[in-house]
Amino acid sequence: xxxxxxxxxxxxxxxxxxxxxxxxxxxxxxxxxxxxxxxxxxxxxxxxxxxxxxxxxxxxxxxxxxxxxxxxxxxxxxxxxxxxxxxxxxxxxxxxxxxxxxxxxxxxxxxxxxxxxxxxxxxxxxxxxxxxxxxxxxxxxxxxxxxxxxxxxxxxxxxxxxxxxxxxxxxxxxxxxxxxxxxxxxxxxxxxxxxxxxxxxxxxxxxxxxxxxxxxxxxxxxxxxxxxxxxxxxxxxxxxxxxxxxxxxxxxxxxxxxxxxxxxxxxxxxxxxxxxxxxxxxxxxxxxxxxxxxxxxxxxxxxxxxxxxxxxxxxxxxxxxxxxxxxxxxxxxxxxxxxxxxxxxxxxxxxxxxxxxxxxxxxxxxx
Length: 367
Hints:
The protein is of the alpha+beta class. It folds into two domains: 1-110 and 310-367, P-loop containing nucleotide triphosphate hydrolases (Rossmann fold, 3-Layer(aba) Sandwich), CATH 3.40.50; 113-306, Up-down Bundle (Glutathione S-transferase Yfyf (Class Pi), Chain A, domain 2), CATH 1.20.1050.90. Helix content is 42%, strand content 25%. The protein is built from ten helices and 16 strands. The strands form three sheets. The chain has a six-stranded antiparallel beta sheet. α3 crosses α4 (144-168), α4 (144-168) packs across α7 and α5 crosses α6 (238-248).
């Protein structure tokens, strides 16, 4: 999977630009607030259908304009494809794939990308929501069917929560939950079963990467934790288990007005040499763990789809020490992964140029 060209129209601080990308490493050099991250954001948006920085699509449009666009020419399994996103302050966004209008659910899996930004360094020590999002994005790109299952589950939880609030306010009867709980249990089981399979594979890949980065000094273990019960194998009785848990928690759910059981409450447990990385890992171990996870994500998507995704590195080089930078760049070069990297200084890279360099300044790009 390779991106050949990226065109932006009235996107963030860009009026009109067109960039031809190298199939290998692309390095965007420039001071802060010049527009480097906007390039990565556009590529990530084309992959996932949303920005990693904002929930408002109006923020993507250049401030004095009423409309904007992203256009991407890319190759998937040696077949040329074209994606276009039209943004407007007055109309709904439109997505075009090879000239045909599509929805977000049809977009997922067309152009896969893995983004690694400084915020990801908090993936391990941050809240469980970040680790769930990491896992869900990874699986969704490898299997669009999972994205549909997760969307279905999220809708059911939202509807059940609305009902719980109505019951708490005495505007509905508790027995109405009997209509929703079996649906929720089945949807939850489908999501968790897919997550368990993915985590089992991710555990193997992440440990391999951890050992490489740490010179075989550290073993990284990744386990799935659902509602306080850790698991690393599929459970045939998940639907029954969730049905029982929903019944046990019904009084608490009504009091709180939210569903307290389900994959939206789960977490991923990471350990290095048997020590919980979030609670007791050193800063160096945590950074190595995040890097190992991201590299494992690349391998996971490749193993599931047959191609490496595009790798997007947003100012990460300044956050990694020399050893980790070298390990990362060696891996990218060895596996021939198309990568777009932003940085403020060329000194973070080897003296011998390893890719195509671009100068970014005030919304302009020069190759």
